[in-house]
Design a protein that fits this description.
Layout: H1 2-42, E1 44-53, E2 56-63, E3 72-77, E4 80-85, E5 89-90, H2 96-99, E6 104-109, E7 115-120, E8 124-131, E9 134-141, H3 153-181, E10 186-192, E11 197-203, E12 209-214, E13 217-222, H4 231-235
Parallel strand pairs: 1-5
Antiparallel strand pairs: 1-2, 2-9, 3-4, 4-7, 6-7, 8-9, 10-11, 12-13
Length: 239
């Protein structure tokens, strides 16, 4: 009987340990899933376009759902161009060597997703330009003379349109700020009727008021302070 009790206790302990191990495994799995979900949520998505231009190669990265580029660094070291970002970027660069065979031999994304590396075929230099959510990277030969290539006309026009829209928005906000700064305003309108005179206090905002009568004196009190033009009332006092 004692041996059966000891055995039962051992079985219970093993079962309890098994449940604890299973709970730990589930917890770790959930933690990994949340961690991967957080990393995926922080990842950016970018499209890649490569073009062989007249005497140079151009690579354009367009980031989804952004109006400004994320922080980046682009530099050449030992014949390899690395474009690095602060956060992982979902990007496909394997087609770049196919489009720019005279400039790039191999292109790959870093394992952690925070950068891409391009193995350059020749001794090149780069020129980068930012245009909203687009990053232009030009691969120029060392003997390139004159100014670097500029942005496409349609990109320049789009940037000008955005700048004009931003200026309109700034002017609207400034006008609203000035209107708010002037404070509340009230106008007095007088209505003459056959048997009575009506005074209408027309405020530019919602208000509360209090009406007090003391013998032959009437007071109207508002919860805002504003200049009130009483000249017309003084000139035409009700009978």
């Amino acid at each position: 009987m004692a041996r059966r009790t000891i055995a039962q206790r051992c079985l219970n302990a093993v079962a309890g340990a098994g449940r604890m191990l299973m709970w730990l495994l589930v917890s770790v799995a959930l933690s990994l899933a949340v961690s991967r979900g957080s990393v995926a949520a922080d990842s950016l998505v970018a499209d890649v376009e490569a073009r062989a231009e007249d005497g140079y190669g151009r690579i354009v990265l367009t980031f989804h759902d952004l109006s400004l580029l994320p922080s980046f660094d682009a530099r050449i070291s030992s014949g390899v161009l690395r474009i690095a970002f602060e956060n992982p970027v979902e990007i496909k660069v394997t087609d770049i060597p196919l489009v720019l065979p005279d400039y790039v031999s191999v292109a790959r994304r870093d394992p952690d997703g925070t950068g891409v590396r391009l193995a350059l075929k020749n001794d090149l230099r780069i020129n980068t330009m930012e245009a909203g959510e687009k990053l232009f990277i030009d691969l120029l030969p060392q003997n390139w003379a004159g100014l670097p290539p500029g942005l496409p006309d349609d990109v320049v026009q789009e940037l000008a349109r955005r700048a004009e829209a931003a200026m309109r928005r700034v002017r609207e906000l400034e006008q609203t700020r000035l209107e708010d700064h002037t404070g509340p305003r009230v106008d007095l309108r007088i209505g003459e009727h056959p048997t009575f005179t009506r005074l209408v206090f027309d405020w530019t905002l919602r208000f509360d008021s209090k009406f007090i009568r003391e013998d032959d004196l009437v007071k109207v009190i508002f919860n805002h302070s504003a200049q009130l033009d009483l000249s017309e009332l003084r000139a035409h006092l009700p009978a």
